[in-house]
Amino acid sequence: MLKMERVIFTTLCSAFFFTNCVSGDYPKAQNVSWLSINFKTLLMWDPKPTNYSYTVEYSVIGQNRKKNQHCIRTMETECDLSNSLVDLKAIYSADVLSEPLRGVNSDLIEFPHTTSERFTPYEDTLIGRPEFKIEVSKDKRKITLYVEDPLTALFNKQNQQRTIRDVFADELQYKVTFGKATSTGKKTKISASSEIELDRRDVDPGVSYCFNVQAYIPSRSTDKQLGELSQRQCSPGDDKSVFEEYGIGVIATFILLIIMIIVVAIGVTVVCCKRRRNANRSGKEGVPLRSV
Fold this sequence. Notes:
This protein is α+β, with helices and mostly antiparallel strands. The chain contains five helices and 18 strands.
């Protein structure tokens, strides 16, 4: 009887072990990358897991790794680390570990993992497109752009959402690209202020101009200095004459084209008339004279 009980106990333990303990490797995460806009920072990877899960560990380079509580044995393929990367100027790296599902054990001592590229929020986050309003002065000699500093995913101690101006302070500038609404020519202007004035040195009075604005942070590496381009907006302009609207060159070309069409039409008409006259003469010469 005691021997039978041992057999049953061993069988149950073995069943429990094979049900709740998995051996072997798990697929490594692929394409691990950072996606960060206005300090909303996601770590992303592939593929979608099936019979396993992922855990994300992150750290400042050279320090101990930590786990994000929302990214432990998850079935998702992204992890929001916006609130975890507290020191915006620090250099971070992250590991995506492939692990068994929740409630399942494994005999592996170290799980397969993939390490991300290094990431510094202050240097690497993309600045999103800003919104702005246009105001034309009464004398129409000045156009002012009022740029709204984009909000970030960060909050201060009073739980107020911070803007990119709060983060970058004096390092933040704006680049304005503009030109006449009726022209393809472009000008640029850099402003340290969110209130950008363009006067007679930049714009002609009463003329409609179109604008694009983007954040500009010159302290960054060249490929990350400019933020996302805003939507195009145009200022109102006075009613223009035909010459102002289309330009003398376009109108001159149009007039020349009309003259050419008239000349060609006259030429065709003259040729047709000559042929008809010649045909009539030939017809009369071929008729015999009547006898008297």
